[in-house]
Design goal:
The complex is a heterodimer of chains A (about 170) and B (about 280). Chain A is mainly α and about 170 residues long. Chain A has 6 helices and no strands. In chain A, α1 packs antiparallel against α6 and α2 runs antiparallel to α3. The longest helix of chain A is centred in the C-terminal third of the chain and has 29 residues. In chain B, the strands form 2 sheets. In chain B, strands 1-2-5-4-3-12 form a 6-stranded antiparallel β-barrel. In chain B, strands 6-7-8-11-10-9 form a 6-stranded antiparallel beta barrel. In chain B, α3 packs across α5. The chains are: A mainly alpha (about 170), B alpha+beta (about 280).
Chain lengths: ~170, ~280
Protein backbone atom coordinates (compact mmCIF):
# COMPACT_ATOMS: atom_id res chain seq x y z
CA UNK A 1 0.00 0.00 0.00
CA UNK A 2 2.81 2.41 0.97
CA UNK A 3 4.74 1.49 -2.17
CA UNK A 4 1.63 2.10 -4.30
CA UNK A 5 1.00 5.49 -2.70
CA UNK A 6 4.64 6.54 -3.00
CA UNK A 7 4.99 5.60 -6.67
CA UNK A 8 1.49 6.92 -7.40
CA UNK A 9 2.49 10.31 -6.01
CA UNK A 10 5.82 10.39 -7.85
CA UNK A 11 4.16 9.28 -11.11
CA UNK A 12 1.46 11.93 -10.76
CA UNK A 13 4.02 14.69 -10.18
CA UNK A 14 6.19 13.34 -12.99
CA UNK A 15 3.31 13.25 -15.48
CA UNK A 16 2.13 16.73 -14.47
CA UNK A 17 5.68 18.00 -15.06
CA UNK A 18 6.02 16.15 -18.38
CA UNK A 19 2.71 17.48 -19.75
CA UNK A 20 2.82 21.07 -18.45
CA UNK A 21 6.45 22.04 -19.04
CA UNK A 22 7.07 20.98 -22.69
CA UNK A 23 4.21 23.24 -23.76
CA UNK A 24 5.99 26.22 -22.19
CA UNK A 25 9.58 25.74 -23.36
CA UNK A 26 11.06 25.74 -26.84
CA UNK A 27 13.12 22.52 -26.42
CA UNK A 28 10.76 19.81 -25.10
CA UNK A 29 13.48 17.13 -25.34
CA UNK A 30 15.12 18.75 -22.29
CA UNK A 31 12.36 17.18 -20.18
CA UNK A 32 13.51 13.85 -18.67
CA UNK A 33 11.32 10.77 -18.97
CA UNK A 34 10.45 10.44 -15.28
CA UNK A 35 8.13 7.46 -15.73
CA UNK A 36 10.96 5.38 -17.20
CA UNK A 37 13.17 6.39 -14.25
CA UNK A 38 10.46 5.26 -11.81
CA UNK A 39 10.01 1.96 -13.69
CA UNK A 40 13.77 1.31 -13.57
CA UNK A 41 13.80 1.96 -9.82
CA UNK A 42 10.93 -0.50 -9.38
CA UNK A 43 12.67 -3.13 -11.50
CA UNK A 44 16.04 -2.75 -9.81
CA UNK A 45 14.89 -2.50 -6.22
CA UNK A 46 11.44 -4.05 -5.81
CA UNK A 47 10.99 -7.65 -6.85
CA UNK A 48 7.40 -8.78 -6.72
CA UNK A 49 4.00 -8.86 -8.34
CA UNK A 50 2.90 -5.44 -7.03
CA UNK A 51 5.89 -3.54 -8.54
CA UNK A 52 5.16 -5.14 -11.93
CA UNK A 53 1.55 -3.99 -11.68
CA UNK A 54 2.66 -0.53 -10.61
CA UNK A 55 4.92 -0.27 -13.67
CA UNK A 56 1.99 -1.25 -15.89
CA UNK A 57 -0.28 1.28 -14.14
CA UNK A 58 2.29 4.08 -14.60
CA UNK A 59 2.53 3.21 -18.30
CA UNK A 60 -1.24 3.17 -18.65
CA UNK A 61 -1.43 6.54 -16.89
CA UNK A 62 1.08 7.83 -19.44
CA UNK A 63 -1.17 6.47 -22.20
CA UNK A 64 -3.96 8.68 -20.87
CA UNK A 65 -1.76 11.72 -21.50
CA UNK A 66 0.34 10.72 -24.49
CA UNK A 67 -0.10 9.30 -27.97
CA UNK A 68 -3.21 7.89 -29.54
CA UNK A 69 -2.82 4.15 -28.88
CA UNK A 70 -3.85 3.20 -25.31
CA UNK A 71 -1.63 0.37 -24.09
CA UNK A 72 1.49 1.45 -25.96
CA UNK A 73 3.25 3.11 -23.04
CA UNK A 74 1.86 0.48 -20.65
CA UNK A 75 3.63 -2.14 -22.79
CA UNK A 76 6.92 -0.25 -23.04
CA UNK A 77 7.09 0.75 -19.36
CA UNK A 78 6.29 -2.83 -18.25
CA UNK A 79 9.04 -4.02 -20.59
CA UNK A 80 11.51 -1.53 -19.08
CA UNK A 81 10.53 -2.80 -15.62
CA UNK A 82 11.07 -6.40 -16.70
CA UNK A 83 14.49 -5.68 -18.23
CA UNK A 84 15.54 -3.76 -15.09
CA UNK A 85 14.37 -6.67 -12.94
CA UNK A 86 16.34 -9.15 -15.06
CA UNK A 87 19.46 -6.94 -14.87
CA UNK A 88 19.03 -6.62 -11.12
CA UNK A 89 18.72 -10.42 -10.81
CA UNK A 90 21.99 -10.97 -12.66
CA UNK A 91 24.21 -8.21 -11.24
CA UNK A 92 25.73 -8.26 -7.77
CA UNK A 93 25.26 -4.53 -7.26
CA UNK A 94 22.66 -2.21 -8.77
CA UNK A 95 24.00 1.24 -7.98
CA UNK A 96 23.07 4.65 -9.41
CA UNK A 97 25.43 4.20 -12.38
CA UNK A 98 23.75 0.94 -13.41
CA UNK A 99 20.36 2.61 -12.93
CA UNK A 100 21.35 5.63 -15.02
CA UNK A 101 22.65 3.36 -17.80
CA UNK A 102 19.42 1.36 -17.84
CA UNK A 103 17.45 4.63 -17.89
CA UNK A 104 19.48 5.91 -20.87
CA UNK A 105 18.78 2.83 -22.98
CA UNK A 106 15.27 2.50 -21.55
CA UNK A 107 14.27 5.98 -22.77
CA UNK A 108 15.58 5.26 -26.29
CA UNK A 109 14.02 1.78 -26.40
CA UNK A 110 10.68 3.10 -25.10
CA UNK A 111 10.55 5.80 -27.79
CA UNK A 112 11.60 3.57 -30.68
CA UNK A 113 9.35 0.74 -29.47
CA UNK A 114 6.38 3.09 -29.23
CA UNK A 115 6.99 4.33 -32.79
CA UNK A 116 7.47 0.80 -34.14
CA UNK A 117 4.30 -0.56 -32.52
CA UNK A 118 2.21 2.58 -33.02
CA UNK A 119 3.15 3.52 -36.57
CA UNK A 120 4.67 0.29 -37.90
CA UNK A 121 8.27 -0.86 -38.14
CA UNK A 122 8.67 1.00 -41.43
CA UNK A 123 8.28 4.28 -39.48
CA UNK A 124 11.59 3.54 -37.75
CA UNK A 125 13.25 4.52 -41.02
CA UNK A 126 11.97 8.09 -40.53
CA UNK A 127 13.39 8.46 -37.04
CA UNK A 128 16.80 9.74 -38.16
CA UNK A 129 15.92 13.38 -37.60
CA UNK A 130 14.46 12.79 -34.11
CA UNK A 131 17.43 10.74 -32.90
CA UNK A 132 19.51 13.77 -31.72
CA UNK A 133 16.63 15.07 -29.56
CA UNK A 134 15.89 11.52 -28.37
CA UNK A 135 19.54 10.99 -27.40
CA UNK A 136 19.46 14.36 -25.59
CA UNK A 137 16.35 13.37 -23.66
CA UNK A 138 17.90 9.97 -22.82
CA UNK A 139 21.11 11.65 -21.61
CA UNK A 140 19.21 14.17 -19.48
CA UNK A 141 17.04 11.38 -18.06
CA UNK A 142 20.20 9.38 -17.18
CA UNK A 143 21.73 12.46 -15.51
CA UNK A 144 18.58 13.16 -13.51
CA UNK A 145 18.05 9.47 -12.60
CA UNK A 146 20.48 9.32 -9.61
CA UNK A 147 18.77 12.36 -8.11
CA UNK A 148 15.33 10.78 -8.52
CA UNK A 149 16.64 7.47 -7.13
CA UNK A 150 17.98 9.23 -4.04
CA UNK A 151 14.70 11.15 -3.60
CA UNK A 152 12.83 7.84 -3.86
CA UNK A 153 15.22 6.18 -1.40
CA UNK A 154 14.71 9.02 1.10
CA UNK A 155 10.93 8.83 0.66
CA UNK A 156 11.01 5.04 1.08
CA UNK A 157 12.98 5.39 4.31
CA UNK A 158 10.41 7.90 5.54
CA UNK A 159 7.60 5.51 4.61
CA UNK A 160 9.39 2.56 6.23
CA UNK A 161 9.94 0.73 2.93
CA UNK A 162 13.14 -1.10 1.93
CA UNK A 163 15.21 1.20 -0.30
CA UNK A 164 17.09 -1.70 -1.94
CA UNK A 165 16.22 -5.13 -3.30
CA UNK A 166 16.08 -7.83 -0.61
CA UNK A 167 19.17 -9.63 -2.04
CA UNK A 168 21.39 -6.55 -1.60
CA UNK B 1 4.63 -22.76 -2.04
CA UNK B 2 7.49 -20.24 -1.87
CA UNK B 3 9.90 -22.64 -3.59
CA UNK B 4 7.43 -23.53 -6.34
CA UNK B 5 7.74 -22.64 -10.02
CA UNK B 6 4.96 -20.05 -9.92
CA UNK B 7 6.41 -18.28 -6.89
CA UNK B 8 9.97 -18.25 -8.25
CA UNK B 9 8.82 -16.82 -11.58
CA UNK B 10 6.04 -14.60 -10.26
CA UNK B 11 7.59 -11.37 -11.57
CA UNK B 12 8.19 -12.82 -15.03
CA UNK B 13 4.71 -14.34 -15.21
CA UNK B 14 2.97 -11.17 -13.97
CA UNK B 15 4.97 -8.98 -16.35
CA UNK B 16 4.25 -11.38 -19.21
CA UNK B 17 0.52 -11.27 -18.48
CA UNK B 18 0.60 -7.46 -18.32
CA UNK B 19 2.52 -7.27 -21.60
CA UNK B 20 -0.13 -9.46 -23.25
CA UNK B 21 -2.86 -7.25 -21.76
CA UNK B 22 -1.08 -4.16 -23.17
CA UNK B 23 -0.87 -5.74 -26.62
CA UNK B 24 -4.57 -6.61 -26.40
CA UNK B 25 -5.36 -2.95 -25.57
CA UNK B 26 -3.22 -1.74 -28.48
CA UNK B 27 -4.78 -4.14 -30.97
CA UNK B 28 -8.42 -3.67 -29.95
CA UNK B 29 -8.25 0.01 -29.05
CA UNK B 30 -10.23 1.74 -26.33
CA UNK B 31 -13.62 3.17 -27.23
CA UNK B 32 -15.61 5.77 -25.27
CA UNK B 33 -17.68 4.03 -22.62
CA UNK B 34 -15.38 0.98 -22.45
CA UNK B 35 -14.24 -0.20 -19.02
CA UNK B 36 -10.64 0.43 -20.13
CA UNK B 37 -11.50 4.06 -20.99
CA UNK B 38 -12.45 4.87 -17.39
CA UNK B 39 -8.93 4.94 -15.94
CA UNK B 40 -7.81 7.02 -18.93
CA UNK B 41 -10.57 9.54 -18.29
CA UNK B 42 -9.76 9.53 -14.56
CA UNK B 43 -6.04 10.22 -15.15
CA UNK B 44 -6.93 13.09 -17.49
CA UNK B 45 -9.28 14.51 -14.88
CA UNK B 46 -6.68 14.19 -12.09
CA UNK B 47 -3.93 15.85 -14.11
CA UNK B 48 -6.11 18.74 -15.36
CA UNK B 49 -6.04 21.01 -12.25
CA UNK B 50 -2.30 20.38 -11.76
CA UNK B 51 -1.52 21.27 -15.37
CA UNK B 52 -3.82 24.29 -15.27
CA UNK B 53 -2.13 25.56 -12.10
CA UNK B 54 1.31 24.83 -13.56
CA UNK B 55 0.49 26.71 -16.77
CA UNK B 56 -0.95 29.65 -14.85
CA UNK B 57 2.04 29.81 -12.51
CA UNK B 58 4.60 29.32 -15.29
CA UNK B 59 3.19 32.05 -17.55
CA UNK B 60 3.15 34.50 -14.63
CA UNK B 61 6.64 33.50 -13.51
CA UNK B 62 8.12 33.73 -17.01
CA UNK B 63 6.77 37.25 -17.55
CA UNK B 64 8.22 38.32 -14.18
CA UNK B 65 11.60 36.74 -15.03
CA UNK B 66 11.64 38.52 -18.40
CA UNK B 67 10.76 41.82 -16.76
CA UNK B 68 13.46 41.28 -14.15
CA UNK B 69 16.09 40.69 -16.82
CA UNK B 70 15.04 43.85 -18.65
CA UNK B 71 15.45 45.83 -15.47
CA UNK B 72 18.98 44.73 -14.55
CA UNK B 73 20.54 48.00 -15.69
CA UNK B 74 18.00 50.01 -13.71
CA UNK B 75 19.00 48.18 -10.54
CA UNK B 76 22.52 49.54 -10.87
CA UNK B 77 21.20 53.12 -10.97
CA UNK B 78 18.73 53.07 -8.17
CA UNK B 79 17.44 50.22 -6.01
CA UNK B 80 14.23 51.92 -5.01
CA UNK B 81 13.40 52.92 -8.56
CA UNK B 82 14.10 49.35 -9.71
CA UNK B 83 11.57 47.82 -7.30
CA UNK B 84 8.96 50.36 -8.27
CA UNK B 85 9.66 49.89 -11.94
CA UNK B 86 9.59 46.10 -11.57
CA UNK B 87 6.15 46.31 -10.02
CA UNK B 88 4.86 48.60 -12.76
CA UNK B 89 6.43 46.51 -15.52
CA UNK B 90 5.06 43.34 -14.00
CA UNK B 91 1.59 44.91 -14.00
CA UNK B 92 2.12 45.96 -17.58
CA UNK B 93 3.19 42.42 -18.53
CA UNK B 94 0.05 41.08 -16.91
CA UNK B 95 -2.03 43.63 -18.83
CA UNK B 96 -0.22 42.73 -22.05
CA UNK B 97 -0.97 39.08 -21.32
CA UNK B 98 -4.64 39.91 -20.81
CA UNK B 99 -4.64 41.97 -23.99
CA UNK B 100 -3.05 39.09 -25.94
CA UNK B 101 -5.61 36.67 -24.50
CA UNK B 102 -8.40 39.06 -25.47
CA UNK B 103 -6.98 39.34 -28.97
CA UNK B 104 -6.81 35.55 -29.32
CA UNK B 105 -10.36 35.16 -28.11
CA UNK B 106 -11.49 37.98 -30.43
CA UNK B 107 -9.86 36.22 -33.38
CA UNK B 108 -11.51 32.94 -32.39
CA UNK B 109 -14.83 34.77 -32.15
CA UNK B 110 -14.37 36.09 -35.69
CA UNK B 111 -13.59 32.57 -36.88
CA UNK B 112 -16.67 31.30 -35.08
CA UNK B 113 -18.81 33.86 -36.95
CA UNK B 114 -17.24 32.95 -40.28
CA UNK B 115 -17.76 29.21 -39.75
CA UNK B 116 -21.41 29.57 -38.87
CA UNK B 117 -21.18 26.30 -36.90
CA UNK B 118 -21.70 25.64 -33.24
CA UNK B 119 -18.30 25.96 -31.53
CA UNK B 120 -16.71 26.09 -28.07
CA UNK B 121 -13.46 27.87 -27.11
CA UNK B 122 -10.97 26.11 -24.82
CA UNK B 123 -7.64 26.86 -23.17
CA UNK B 124 -4.58 24.71 -23.87
CA UNK B 125 -3.01 23.56 -20.58
CA UNK B 126 -0.53 20.88 -21.58
CA UNK B 127 1.06 18.77 -24.26
CA UNK B 128 2.02 15.12 -24.87
CA UNK B 129 3.58 13.42 -21.84
CA UNK B 130 6.23 11.59 -23.87
CA UNK B 131 6.83 14.16 -26.60
CA UNK B 132 6.83 11.39 -29.22
CA UNK B 133 3.27 11.99 -30.29
CA UNK B 134 1.84 15.41 -31.01
CA UNK B 135 -1.10 15.92 -28.68
CA UNK B 136 -2.45 18.75 -26.53
CA UNK B 137 -4.46 18.79 -23.30
CA UNK B 138 -7.42 21.18 -23.12
CA UNK B 139 -9.09 22.52 -19.98
CA UNK B 140 -12.55 21.68 -21.32
CA UNK B 141 -14.28 18.33 -21.57
CA UNK B 142 -17.60 16.51 -21.69
CA UNK B 143 -19.25 19.10 -19.44
CA UNK B 144 -18.55 21.70 -22.15
CA UNK B 145 -20.11 19.54 -24.84
CA UNK B 146 -16.86 18.09 -26.21
CA UNK B 147 -16.80 14.55 -27.66
CA UNK B 148 -14.12 12.41 -29.32
CA UNK B 149 -13.84 13.05 -33.06
CA UNK B 150 -14.67 16.76 -32.95
CA UNK B 151 -12.57 19.14 -35.06
CA UNK B 152 -10.22 21.58 -33.32
CA UNK B 153 -9.29 24.86 -35.02
CA UNK B 154 -7.40 28.07 -34.34
CA UNK B 155 -7.57 31.42 -36.07
CA UNK B 156 -4.54 30.25 -38.13
CA UNK B 157 -6.13 27.05 -39.42
CA UNK B 158 -6.79 23.39 -38.62
CA UNK B 159 -5.25 22.14 -35.34
CA UNK B 160 -6.46 18.54 -34.97
CA UNK B 161 -9.27 16.44 -33.55
CA UNK B 162 -10.33 15.38 -30.07
CA UNK B 163 -9.31 11.80 -29.22
CA UNK B 164 -10.17 11.53 -25.52
CA UNK B 165 -12.44 13.37 -23.11
CA UNK B 166 -13.02 13.40 -19.38
CA UNK B 167 -15.68 15.51 -17.63
CA UNK B 168 -13.45 18.60 -17.49
CA UNK B 169 -10.50 17.93 -19.81
CA UNK B 170 -9.79 16.54 -23.24
CA UNK B 171 -6.91 15.57 -25.52
CA UNK B 172 -6.34 16.69 -29.08
CA UNK B 173 -4.38 14.73 -31.71
CA UNK B 174 -2.60 17.37 -33.79
CA UNK B 175 -2.65 17.07 -37.58
CA UNK B 176 1.16 16.79 -37.65
CA UNK B 177 1.14 13.60 -35.53
CA UNK B 178 2.25 10.48 -37.39
CA UNK B 179 -1.09 8.80 -36.60
CA UNK B 180 -3.15 11.69 -37.97
CA UNK B 181 -4.73 12.02 -41.40
CA UNK B 182 -7.35 14.28 -42.99
CA UNK B 183 -8.82 14.75 -46.44
CA UNK B 184 -7.60 17.93 -48.19
CA UNK B 185 -7.13 19.49 -51.60
CA UNK B 186 -5.01 22.05 -53.40
CA UNK B 187 -7.06 25.25 -53.61
CA UNK B 188 -5.59 26.25 -57.00
CA UNK B 189 -5.51 22.96 -58.91
CA UNK B 190 -8.26 21.19 -56.87
CA UNK B 191 -6.03 18.10 -56.65
CA UNK B 192 -7.04 15.93 -53.69
CA UNK B 193 -4.95 13.97 -51.25
CA UNK B 194 -4.60 12.82 -47.66
CA UNK B 195 -2.76 15.22 -45.37
CA UNK B 196 -0.75 13.12 -42.91
CA UNK B 197 1.76 13.85 -40.16
CA UNK B 198 5.28 12.46 -39.96
CA UNK B 199 7.30 10.92 -37.12
CA UNK B 200 9.96 13.63 -37.53
CA UNK B 201 7.55 16.62 -37.59
CA UNK B 202 5.93 18.24 -40.62
CA UNK B 203 3.09 17.29 -42.93
CA UNK B 204 2.84 15.53 -46.27
CA UNK B 205 0.14 15.21 -48.91
CA UNK B 206 -0.29 11.52 -49.71
CA UNK B 207 -1.92 9.67 -52.60
CA UNK B 208 -1.91 12.61 -55.02
CA UNK B 209 -1.57 11.45 -58.61
CA UNK B 210 1.72 12.33 -60.37
CA UNK B 211 -0.18 13.94 -63.22
CA UNK B 212 -1.69 16.58 -60.93
CA UNK B 213 -0.55 20.20 -61.28
CA UNK B 214 0.68 20.90 -57.74
CA UNK B 215 3.29 23.60 -57.08
CA UNK B 216 5.24 24.95 -54.11
CA UNK B 217 3.36 27.84 -52.52
CA UNK B 218 -0.11 26.39 -53.21
CA UNK B 219 -2.59 26.44 -50.35
CA UNK B 220 -4.02 23.19 -48.98
CA UNK B 221 -7.48 23.31 -47.42
CA UNK B 222 -9.82 20.72 -45.92
CA UNK B 223 -12.25 19.00 -48.29
CA UNK B 224 -14.91 18.20 -45.69
CA UNK B 225 -15.06 14.64 -47.02
CA UNK B 226 -13.63 13.04 -43.88
CA UNK B 227 -16.74 13.96 -41.91
CA UNK B 228 -14.69 15.69 -39.22
CA UNK B 229 -13.36 18.99 -40.56
CA UNK B 230 -15.66 21.50 -42.27
CA UNK B 231 -14.74 22.21 -45.92
CA UNK B 232 -12.37 25.05 -46.85
CA UNK B 233 -10.32 25.41 -43.65
CA UNK B 234 -6.64 26.28 -44.05
CA UNK B 235 -4.27 23.35 -43.45
CA UNK B 236 -0.98 24.73 -44.76
CA UNK B 237 1.14 25.74 -47.73
CA UNK B 238 3.06 23.41 -50.02
CA UNK B 239 6.80 23.58 -49.30
CA UNK B 240 8.10 21.26 -51.99
CA UNK B 241 6.94 18.82 -54.65
CA UNK B 242 9.13 15.90 -55.76
CA UNK B 243 8.26 14.06 -58.94
CA UNK B 244 11.47 12.03 -59.12
CA UNK B 245 11.70 8.36 -58.23
CA UNK B 246 9.35 5.44 -58.74
CA UNK B 247 5.76 5.25 -57.56
CA UNK B 248 2.31 6.35 -58.61
CA UNK B 249 2.06 9.37 -56.36
CA UNK B 250 3.76 12.72 -55.78
CA UNK B 251 5.95 13.43 -52.75
CA UNK B 252 4.45 16.64 -51.41
CA UNK B 253 5.69 18.36 -48.27
CA UNK B 254 3.45 20.88 -46.49
CA UNK B 255 4.26 23.68 -44.02
CA UNK B 256 1.41 23.71 -41.45
CA UNK B 257 -0.52 26.98 -41.18
CA UNK B 258 -0.72 26.67 -37.40
CA UNK B 259 2.20 27.21 -35.04
CA UNK B 260 1.23 24.34 -32.74
CA UNK B 261 3.73 25.09 -29.98
CA UNK B 262 2.43 28.59 -29.29
CA UNK B 263 -1.26 27.66 -29.07
CA UNK B 264 -3.04 29.06 -26.02
CA UNK B 265 -6.69 28.95 -27.05
CA UNK B 266 -8.49 26.82 -29.62
CA UNK B 267 -11.97 26.50 -31.04
CA UNK B 268 -13.78 23.14 -31.10
CA UNK B 269 -16.52 22.54 -33.66
CA UNK B 270 -19.25 20.82 -31.64
CA UNK B 271 -21.62 20.52 -34.58
CA UNK B 272 -20.71 17.86 -37.16
CA UNK B 273 -20.00 19.26 -40.64
CA UNK B 274 -22.80 18.91 -43.24
CA UNK B 275 -23.09 15.35 -44.56
CA UNK B 276 -21.63 14.93 -48.02
CA UNK B 277 -23.24 12.23 -50.11
CA UNK B 278 -21.05 9.28 -51.06
CA UNK B 279 -21.71 9.96 -54.75
CA UNK B 280 -20.26 13.48 -54.36
CA UNK B 281 -17.23 11.98 -52.55
CA UNK B 282 -16.44 9.72 -55.46
Amino acid sequence: MRLTLLFGLFALLGLAFETAVPHLISVPSLIPNLIVILAVDLGLRHHGVLPAMLAFAMGYATDALAGSHPGLNAFMVTLVFLVSYEISSRLLVTNAFVGATVVFFGVIATALGAIAIGAGFSALGDTGSIMPSLMLQAAISALVAPLVFSMLAASKRLAGLPARAARE
Amino acid sequence: MRGGFLWRNRVLLTSGALLILSLHLISTGVHPGDLAARPESAFLEIIRPIDAAFTHFSSGASSIVNDYLDLLHVREENAHLRIELARVTSDRARLAELEAENRHLGELLELKDVLGLSTVAANVIGSDATGLSHTLILASGESNGLRPGMAVLSNQGVVGKIIAVSPHASRVLLIDDHNSALDGFDQRSRARGIVAGLVDDGLILKYTDRSQDIRAGDTIVTSGLDGIFPRGLLVGTIKSVHREGPGLFLNVSIAPAVEFRGLEQVLIVTQPPPHIDDQVKG
